[in-house]
Amino acid sequence: MFIGREYELQELNQMYQTEQFQMPVIYGRRRVGKSTLIREFAEGKRAIVFTAVESTMEKNLQLFSKCIYSALLPQMQSLPPFHDFEAAFDFLHEQSQNERLLVVIDEYPYLAMADKSISSRLQNYIDEKFKKGKMFLILCGSSMSFMENQVLGYQSPLYGRRTAQFKILPFDYRTSARFVPDYTAEDKALVYGVTGGIPKYLELFDPKTDVHENIVRLFFNDSGYLYEEPANLMKQELRDAANYNAVIEALACGANRISELTGKTHLDTATVTYCLKSLIGLGIVEKETAVTEENNRKKTHYVIQDGMFRFWYRFVPNGAEMILLKHGREYYEEAVKPQLSDYMGRIFEDMCRSFLMYQSNEKKMPFQIIKTGRWWGNNPRLHREEEIDVVALHPLQKKMLIGECKYRKEKMEKATAELLLERGTLLAGNFEKMYLLFSKSGFEEETISFAQAKGVILVTLEEMYQ
Question: Could you tell me which residues come within 8 angstroms of residue 396 by beta carbon, excluding any fewer than 6 positions away?
């Protein structure tokens, strides 16, 4: 079943119906569903879908030729490969003169690495020939830094040729839940928390099997698909994985500043900074700033953005020995399961911010939310640093929502609501402030009464899935 990506499909189909030359660029991290989206879009169309490989230009030309023959000349697949890519491009140009032709080059970075001149040659064909026909050309890639710099970037020969770009992101928690529709809200949240909304990983969950059984099978079994997934991805994308592993492990343990990361990894500042830049480019790590102080360098954190990486690095390495001895289930029950509520705390905060954006788009919030994030800073009265889980605002209208999130078995107590109102006074700026409390397990009666009196909005995990 094809799930999600309704917006991207709609936009692609609208472009396709114009019959003019189009060149959308599609990119995103591995396993995020780019190829699945393209296959769904190509269904029923006159299409050539070619996936480049990490090999020579000759090998890629051979595969490209085979794709062309299979799609357009199925009775003549025994023909020799085109002499060069120019000959293949000439043939495709002829085929797209009077009839719409979809041509997909997936994993374009591999093709560009095999022949440094391919982007320049492709640019020439776009300008001189393809624009005069009805070709619909898609360039797709998993190396986000390459696609942003070498395809979309100002220095690229292809700069200005794209007619649209789609950065394919992981699914949010609501779309992720569609893969396990019969799970409880808590189990749906856990699935999102361990997969990060990556479609490939979501597909691996058997919705008819208990969520914990699925996690043990995938992560804590030495034959499980996700047991070595981060290592496999790192090897594909990075040459020296050791330093990157050290940085991610330190992030997973709670280090989030450059100084903390250098201390934990024993790497110098330049190396840590370089690793962070590469990991950000891959969508594994993100640079986070306090939402109302984006230009304050002192308020910069680095966090693991990818949910699967976050879960894996926190739990799997420590259990590697037991997993190899076939005691992965025992390790999960004794060492992982008791920590899941704590682990899900940060995931729940992300979900709450996503919930606010969803509600805002549905016109169900007091104002249109422009951006969301976290805030942290000094409390001068108590002489300590405070954190606010959720801040959502409209800077021009000077309106702000401030929220606290608790992912606990216990119902939220009144003291949490009181603390939220106090922390709200720490945020500078002349904003009209409103308050929200998010709780996995609901609220004590005293909390509900206090919230009603103070105008605080209460939201449970169950309500976030409605």
Answer: 370
In 3D space, the residue among 147, 114, 173 whose CA is nearest the CA of residue 34 turns out to be 147
Distance (Å, whole) CA 287 – CA 270: 16
Q: Which residues pair with 443 in a beta bridge?
A: 412
For residue 411, the model assigns a pLDDT of 97
What is the spatial distance between Cα 68 and Cα 23, in angstroms, rounded to a whole number? 18
Mean pLDDT computed over 215-244:
92
Long-range contacts (CB closer than 8 Å, 24 or more residues apart) made by 119-127? 119/150, 119/151, 119/156, 119/157, 119/158, 120/157, 121/85, 121/86, 121/89, 122/89, 122/157, 122/158, 123/157, 123/158, 123/161, 125/86, 125/89, 125/93, 126/21, 126/23, 126/158, 126/161, 127/161
- Residue 328: what are its φ and ψ, rounded to 5°? -60, -35
Over residues 431-450, the pLDDT tens digits come to 999 999 999 999 999 999 99
> What are the residues whose beta carbons fall under 8 Å from the beta carbon of 308, sequence distance 6 or more?
194, 195, 196, 198, 201, 226, 229, 230
Closest CA to 310 of 198, 422, 200: 198
Q: Which two tokens stand for residue 76?
A: 């003549």
| 204 in the same domain as 266 | yes
Domain that holds residue 88: 6-167
160 and 188 within one domain: no
pTM strictly above 0.90: yes
* Number of domain units in the chain: 3
Q: What is the pLDDT of residue 6?
A: 96
Indicate if 184 and 323 belong to the same structural domain.
yes
Query: Is the domain of 382 the same as that of 267?
Result: no
Query: d(Cα 36, Cα 51) in Å, to the nearest integer?
Result: 13
Question: Which of 134, 167, 200 corresponds to the end of one domain?
Answer: 167
What percent of the chain has a predicted confidence (pLDDT) above 90?
87
CB 292 within 8 A of CB 394: no
Q: What is the CATH number of the domain that holds 28?
A: 3.40.50.300
